[in-house]
What we know:
With 760 residues, the chain is an alpha/beta fold.
Amino acid sequence: MTNTLKIILASAILFTFTFCEPKSAPKNNALTEAVINQKVDSVLALMTLPEKIGQLNQYTGDNTATGPITINPNKQQEIKEGLIGSMLNILGTKYTRQYQDLAMQSRLKIPLIFAQDVIHGYKTTFPIPLAEAASWDLEAMQLSARIAAVEASASGIHWTFAPMVDIARDPRWGRVMEGAGEDTYLGSKIAFAKVKGFQGENLNNVNTIMACTKHFAAYGAAVGGRDYNSVDMSERMLWETYLPPFKATIDAGVATFMNAFNDLNGIPATGNSYLQREVLKGKWNFKGFVVSDWGSIGEMINHGYVKDGKGAALAAITAGSDMDMESNAYRNNLEQLVKENKVSMTLIDEAVKRILHKKFELGLFDDPYKYCNPEREQQALNNPEHTKIARAMASKSIVLLKNTPLGEEKGARILPLSKNIKTIAFIGPMVKLKRANHGFWAIDLKEIDSSYIVSQWEGLQNKVGKNTKLLYAKGCDINDDNKNGFAQAIATAKQADVVILSIGERWNMSGEAESRSNIHIPGVQEDLVKAIAATGKPIVVLINAGRPLIFNWTADNMPAILYTWWLGSEAGNAIADVLFGDYNPSGKLPMTFPRVEGQIPIYYNHFNTGRPSINEDKIYKSAYIDLPNSPKFPFGYGLSYTNFKYSDLKLSKNKMKSDETIEVSLKITNTGKVAGEEVVQLYLRDKVGAVVRPIIELKDFQKISLKASETKTITFIIDKEKLSFYNEKVEWISEPGEFDLMIGSSSADIRLNSIFELTN
Ligand code: NOJ
């Protein structure tokens, strides 16, 4: 990291933790658990059954709907009657105040909770979550969630539907953009950091919002990567791979959970008692509340799990879904179900209490307008510190995929670009886009224009001096077959010393309901790359996407490639920082990039099989006859403008008992000429297990920064937890035996190895 960026980040962290508390913020008046419980009981005692059921209803408001449009012309009246507990998609203090006013006209004046999908920023938009995950920088990710909470809370929002912690091994699934990728260990660390960021120290602080862990559970394993599809998996796989990030958010104190659209082994997650009652509220002792996904209670009719809305309401409340988002199933059926003694009052009360509890924790009973201060909103949404933090986060999320030497001048590479280049041609359909840089799940702030978003073109303009001439050509559109723009793009490239080509998928080709069967670069964009390559000019390719894409020709033929995802409001500046070496790229892929769709699902921590293909041999081996097994780019991969040498691996001992630990130390040296950051990754393999174990598994990592020629010693601790796994009875155990220790720069670039033994 350059010194300037380091200073920005350090001062940003200091700023956020020290000064984000607005002047008007009340002192921390957090009530004790016992007092809250007492207050909840006293409110509950006053409530009629319709009022109780009302607390369990959530409806969408007037802003852009984030699910199938529903119409309920009586919402406002129902709020006045105390029949709605929460609203989503109402943004801005002006509007949240109006709605809270309605709630204050109700008999018991129970405040509404305002929810929103604040996924990667509010006004200041950070990289999409998959891109942030590529930073492997937990502190930075916590900070981006903190800023999102500061802005959203100032704008009237109490609750975000984030983080999405679904492990995803299928890049066809559009929602991979919203999670942390394929790895359980990395995903769990990020899930924890995100909750801490959103919720801050205490929910009673006015600049915090409730987080919501979603989608419980296993939504990321939808068959064929098709959104909303079924999931079928062993209980052991569920526990080992998919549930740990959910548990990590419980450890971080998450306030709420959202269930999921999918069925899991034949039972819709929304009506799944095992997941919600047995695991979440039982084994994990979760005290918050569970909201359904949009309409997912009603959708149990389509699943063929229940006959009608009444059956859906019964199944969901019984299974532990506390709040109904947009199904109308609770509103229309719960009262009758209680009258028929099919749903007990205790069941209703339990759900209501969980929701009221959060309203007390947020301090809304003391002051329902606590989050409705327009002055504070104005300040928070126009804070230049937030912009700096977004720029640093975006730079950290970029992954350098390729930077090969150019030939003649030995060792010379295109990147970083020199600031003395005379003419640069910036070509491609993404170059001048503004809002697209936000990617999917950006907040639709209708009253704010997009001038604050820095396009890639503007970022380059901001970066170069007046001696550099910038040329532009669009070349083609993102997703059609028209090549009419090629001639002009080629002519433009010919006038330049260096070409930057910006290609990729449209911002909303990944996201909810955006699964793709073909994950190649869409349209004729790779033909454009070929056409520009024919000019013989040095080319840097930027790939913008919400998932791993396939771009084999570009990957094989272009000398310099940066994976730039969707980076948020500071995209242009961050890309320019990396292009010119003001930030040395440090991102590492959080998902495996396949060569072709036929390899999917492809993930690094697979089993060995009985016939493993070593060195890609195929005869009677677990292989494809028409494809290598290896991916195009492996998990954990990413280059830097410098090089790192790994050396001096030492283990404090080679045998450990299960109540002991081994300290692992090694040296990392920056052998290049510029400062840089490296993500040192520690992987293990349990060589023989009661159930077969992955050939390699991430168990720890550290992101360190080193000046040119600097050496640092880093240490990791191996304990029993890192050596444990779920056996066939789904018990968390460790077994005596040998383990391979592998430390490297990616899952496929192991630099240091050792073996140690667990003796009991
Ligand atoms: C459906 C999505 O699956 C969920 O993640 C989101 O929070 C809700 N819609 C609300 O927008």
